[in-house]
Design brief:
The structure holds two protein chains of two kinds.
Chain A (H helix, E strand, L loop, with lengths): L4 E12 L2 E12 L3 E5 L6 H8 L7 E6 L2 E2 L4 H5 L2 E4 L11 H11 L4 H14 L15 H13 L5 E5 L7 H14 L4 E6 L2 H7 L2 E6 L2 E7 H7 L4 E6 L5 H5 L4 E6 L4 E6 L6 H11 L3 E7 L3 H10 L6 H9 L6
Parallel strand pairs in A: 3-8, 3-9, 6-7, 7-8
Antiparallel strand pairs in A: 1-2, 1-4, 4-5, 9-10, 11-13, 11-14, 12-13
Chain B lengths: L1 H14 L1 H33 L7 H25 L4 H5 L3 H5 L5 H29 L8 H28 L3 H21 L5 H10 L6 H4 L5 H28 L2
Helix pairs in contact in B: 1-6, 2-3, 2-6, 3-7, 3-8, 6-7, 6-11, 7-8, 7-11, 8-9
Classes of the chains: A alpha/beta, B mainly alpha.
């Protein structure tokens, strides 16, 4: 096992009765990595996270945290974990200070260090001003922050956040994202979401799961590559015949759109933009638009989650690339 | 870790008005019963004075007081135990403890100890009443001590069974009703065997939670009774731990 891998999940399965919620998922998380867990509703994101956090026992498979099995050595393994479930586990009748102190003690922080741990967590999550208030009276955004503070209070190596930005307003979402990026400097973060820009904004690596199966495990750079252009939109004042465009090297097909616009599909790695511009100048086509067409993350996501898992992802991305919208 | 959970449990109990209300109501009712018992004792005292071998103040006042306390607490304890786990399950706060480095045993024992602390306070308040009689005379401390011990063990059993019922459901009311049902059944169990052969009667009588309480009220300290209660508490605590463990395996 790699020294740097903090969490190692091997062939994880989980059944609810006959229903298979998670089927044979394996992945690893390195130190300091932010892992995005992406999938449509009911794909098995929360189930997987509950299993990693020790709230749910897997039907099959193994979860190692710092090399310790969560079932065999739960105490040692859980000491390295901070978990924020979908619904933050808050006691509404306690104040923020009382609640965080309880969480700190529960996570084996000694009485002497408890106060400083609480203060540190409050500071990181911007809760210093509300320490004396009852959790039940706080707004949803603050409650969410208390939930995050609870997960990081014992400075665990791995923080698991299940849809941390759900139900927040855009400003709060931005604050929480900044917080998560801050956290990733010292901790590894596993994050689940179905909001795609969030993944682009925060994560280093993306796992897409669909119907309980892992359909993609890639870095953000890899995601970006999947989203790269394989088509150009061009528009000319005096458009040439489509056959002329088709004869340009690297061009696969040309689709005529309205008013002298064309969509040009080309082979991967053979961007014909240069040639088109040169020809346009030489032959006086009057080029007025040249836009690389990109697949949006949404498109990649939909393509991947809708396709049968048997198709390889590369094929899918290429097959579907042409239909993408403009990013 | 156990004591951290117990401490939080007591704090939450006293943050809600429930614990205060229950303490006040129980105290009020028992004080009324206690005073009427004293009244009764004062009425018959002149007649008792002339006779030999008559029950003393301890038998006449303390035994009925603890007997009544047991019945009232049978009604009250389910209301205190019902929220222990079911409320946490409903509010999804159980995962806080499940993902912390805490074992199921510590969670259950913490909950049990937290509630026991409240019940101890209640027991103390009840015991203050007979102790007040020391101002006007002397008591049979042996009988008083065995009555207190009896009620303590009885309350422990109530709490253990209530805790177990609370681990079974997400609805506090259901936990309360089923705890009450089981307690009442255990209370009246010995009626079933009364008309039958002596063998069935003795089995039902042994199982009845009341049969083991009565001797203690009379000052009879029988180790069978003590072991019965301890086994009872232990059984339901173990069942609760098993139930919580099964939760991770079986369901959400």
């Amino acid at each position: 096992m790699n020294d740097n891998s903090l969490v190692k999940v091997e062939q994880l399965c989980r059944y609810y009765g006959a229903l298979c919620a998670v089927n044979n998922i394996s992945f690893e998380i390195q130190r300091g990595e932010v892992l995005g867990f992406l999938g449509p509703n009911g794909a098995g994101k929360s189930t997987t996270m509950q299993m990693i956090s020790g709230n749910l026992a897997p039907s099959a498979g193994q979860i190692l945290i710092h090399g310790m099995d969560i079932l065999d050595q739960p105490r040692q393994a859980k000491a390295h974990l901070g978990y924020l479930p979908e619904q933050p586990p808050l006691y509404r009748e306690l104040t923020v200070d009382e609640y965080l102190a309880y969480c700190a003690r529960l996570n084996q922080i000694s009485r002497a260090k408890c106060r400083s741990a609480v203060n540190a967590a409050k500071e990181r999550c911007g809760l210093t001003a509300v320490g004396k208030r009852l959790i039940g009276n706080l707004s949803k955004g603050y409650q969410q922050r208390v939930g995050i503070a609870q997960a990081i209070i014992h400075t665990p190596d791995v923080i698991i956040l299940d849809e941390p930005t759900v139900g927040l307003d855009p400003i709060q979402i931005r604050e929480i994202r900044t917080l998560i990026r801050d956290l990733s400097r010292e901790h590894s973060v596993i994050l689940s979401t179905h909001i795609l820009p969030e993944v682009q904004a925060i994560c280093d690596r993306v796992l897409i799961i669909s119907q309980g199966e892992l359909v993609m495990d890639d870095t953000i750079a890899g995601m970006q590559r999947r989203m790269e252009a394989t088509a150009l939109i061009v528009a000319f004042r005096q458009p040439p015949a489509p056959t002329v465009l088709e004869s340009i090297e690297g061009v696969e097909t040309v689709e005529a759109l309205d008013k002298g616009r064309f969509r040009i599909h080309y082979l991967a790695g053979q961007d014909p933009a240069d040639t088109i511009v040169k020809s346009a100048v030489a032959d006086g086509w009057g080029l007025i638009e040249l836009t690389p067409e990109r697949m949006s993350l949404e498109q990649v996501f939909i393509n991947i989650t809708r396709t049968e898992p048997t198709t390889t992802e590369d094929e899918t991305a290429q097959l579907e690339a042409g239909t993408g919208g403009v990013a | 870790m156990m004591f951290v959970i117990a401490g939080k449990e007591i704090r939450c109990l006293f943050l809600s008005p429930l614990a205060w209300t229950i303490l006040a109501v129980v105290q009020l009712i028992l004080a009324y019963l206690f005073l009427s018992q004293i009244d009764f004792f004062l009425q018959i005292q002149p007649r008792l004075a002339g006779m030999d071998d008559v029950p003393g103040v301890t038998e006449i006042i303390i035994a009925p007081l603890y007997g009544n306390a047991a019945v009232i607490l049978l009604l009250v304890v389910p209301m205190l135990t019902m929220r222990l786990v079911s409320d946490e399950r409903r509010n999804r706060t159980l995962s806080l403890m499940f993902s912390a480095p805490v074992t199921m045993t510590e969670i259950i024992l913490g909950k049990f100890l937290g509630l026991s602390a409240l019940l101890l306070i209640m027991l103390l308040m009840i015991t203050l009443m007979p102790l007040a009689l020391m101002a006007g005379g002397s008591l049979d401390y042996g009988v008083l001590a065995s009555s207190v011990l009896g009620l303590l063990l009885l309350l422990g059993s109530f709490a253990a069974i209530g805790l177990y019922m609370s681990t079974l459901t997400a609805q506090p009311t259901i936990a309360a009703v089923s705890t009450f049902g089981v307690l009442l059944l255990l209370w009246i169990l010995d009626w079933a065997g009364s008309g039958r052969s002596s063998e069935t009667a003795s089995v039902f009588g042994y199982l009845s939670i009341l049969r083991h309480y009565e001797p203690l009220l009379k000052g009879v300290f029988n180790s069978t009774d003590i072991i019965y209660y301890l086994l009872f508490i232990l059984t339901f605590l173990i069942l609760s731990i098993r139930r919580l463990d099964a939760e991770r395996l079986l369901s959400r």
